[in-house]
Amino acid sequence: MKNKLNAICQKLQQSEYKVTPQRQVILKTFLEHATEHLSAEEVYNIVKGQHPDIGLATVYRTLDLLAELDILTKINFGDGRTRYEMVQHEAHHHHHMICLGCGRVQEFDADLLESLENLLTRKTGFQITDHQLKFYGYCRECAAKSEDKSGSGDI
Q: Which one Pfam family would you cite for this protein (predicted)?
């Protein structure tokens, strides 16, 4: 984690941005919660415990900067909140399954669109640089709750 933090701090400096304590604590938050998709409010709630003087506006500005520098990716899951995750340049695409019941987001790594991307590029000459795939439905727990409710009235 420390090597990744150092590399990101170096990228900030190369882009002529200061590595402030607030930026560092926000970056550490994303490195410590690497599998989560955090909103600005969630980041704020995490970092204010370690950095009580940080403001929500600072968190928003920092997240926007980190997204602009391709350190974070902005994601919209259709729930009215922008979420962020660390960019993983070395990893292949991953996709998201969003539960409409509890809002939990699960990732899966199978990139089933790679052959489609190649076909589109060959046929059209369009150079695809990225894609996002989101599935909406119900996680196992919410689906089980729904089945319990619908089955309870049958006699």
A: FUR
